[in-house]
Design brief:
Distance between the termini: 17 Å
CATH architecture of one domain: Alpha-Beta Barrel
CATH topology of one domain: TIM Barrel
CATH class of one domain: Alpha Beta
Radius of gyration: 18 Å
Strand content: 15-25%
Largest sheet: 4 strands, antiparallel
Structural class: alpha/beta
Helix content: 10-25%
């Protein structure tokens, strides 16, 4: 605030972190916060799984007491938190996560999550009657584009924007599994969760890159996206 620059607080996982962000925003300060999908669903008991399987859930900050989850949802509803991210780190189990079996400090930090972010937030946010589809889009696309200086090239459908479009089927049912994911990581933090809602078609710059569950983009189709200054205050 004193320096006149915006502050973006990542990986908010508990009420103790939510409250300072809330107070700053109430004062009109340029302070923003995000949470990650795992903090909304996974609690500290996951670390107690036997046979060192708890290492799958070693990330920073660690999973918290379950009581914090509802506070996070309410913060997303009230615009105290403005985005949902993942901190996607696809380390395999046990080949990589097991490296810390004899030394906790050697457990690779982080877990997979990017593929199921939209599935989980749609099912338990929209389907769970916590917020509507407009808020869903804000939390997973529009706000993020604004915060990171990509708006309006990204984060909106408008003349002059990049025509990045997801055609979303809100009723498509499926079960999240490691075997069914596209990432090469061999486990899933949300294994066995039944959800409704999935992307049928994904377009980038007007070109179809995903149809159903199949990636149809050609290698080299991606382009570097130059960022501008944050548009969070806009």
């Amino acid at each position: 605030h004193v320096a006149g620059v915006p502050l973006y607080v990542v990986h908010v996982s508990c009420l103790d972190a939510i409250e300072p962000i809330m107070h700053a925003r109430e004062k009109g300060w340029n302070v923003w916060g995000e949470t990650c999908t795992q903090y909304l669903f996974i609690d500290e008991t996951a670390l107690e799984k036997p046979d060192f399987e708890g290492a799958k859930y070693v990330y920073t900050p660690p999973p918290r007491h379950k009581s914090n989850q509802e506070h996070l949802w309410k913060a997303l509803q009230a615009d105290v938190l403005s985005a949902v991210s993942t901190d996607h780190c696809p380390f395999n189990w046990p080949e990589q996560k097991g490296l810390g079996r004899d030394d906790f400090s050697k457990i690779p930090n982080g877990g997979p999550g990017i593929e199921n972010r939209l599935h989980m937030i749609h099912e338990f946010g929209v389907r769970g009657a916590r917020f509507d589809m407009n808020r869903f889009v804000q939390l997973t696309s529009t706000n993020i584009a604004k915060l990171f200086g990509l708006y309006p090239k990204k984060g909106t459908i408008a003349p002059g924007s990049d025509a990045d479009i997801v055609v979303w089927d809100p009723d498509r049912k499926h079960t999240i599994t490691a075997k069914g994911q596209h990432s090469k990581v061999n486990y899933n933090l949300f294994e066995g969760t039944e959800v409704r809602g999935a992307a049928d078609v994904v377009l980038v710059r007007g070109q179809v890159i995903v149809e159903g569950d199949k990636l149809v983009a050609k290698p080299g189709a991606g382009k570097f996206v130059k960022r501008g200054p944050t548009g969070a205050a806009a």
